[in-house]
UniProtKB/TrEMBL annotation:
<dbReference type="GO" id="GO:0046872">
    <property type="term" value="F:metal ion binding"/>
</dbReference>
<dbReference type="GO" id="GO:0016616">
    <property type="term" value="F:oxidoreductase activity, acting on the CH-OH group of donors, NAD or NADP as acceptor"/>
</dbReference>
<keyword id="KW-0862">Zinc</keyword>
<dbReference type="InterPro" id="IPR047109">
    <property type="entry name" value="CAD-like"/>
</dbReference>
<keyword id="KW-0560">Oxidoreductase</keyword>
<keyword id="KW-0479">Metal-binding</keyword>
<protein>
    <recommendedName>
        <fullName>Alcohol dehydrogenase-like C-terminal domain-containing protein</fullName>
    </recommendedName>
</protein>
Amino acid sequence: VKITPWFLVPRAVRVRGSVIGSITDIEDMLELAAKANVRPIIQKVQMPDLNKGLDMVRDGSVRYRVVLEN
């Protein structure tokens, strides 16, 4: 994949990647997580408190993930 900096910079685009394993590794991990009933640890924020949730992410006070609820 060719990426031109002149396309990214003015648009403040970020390119990130992660090497976590092959497709088979990921499938095996998901199968194990399902068998072991692994669940994410999240903090729920009601939709009217959206700005509070965003502030938590920005200031680093959130633990794990913030999930917006209706």
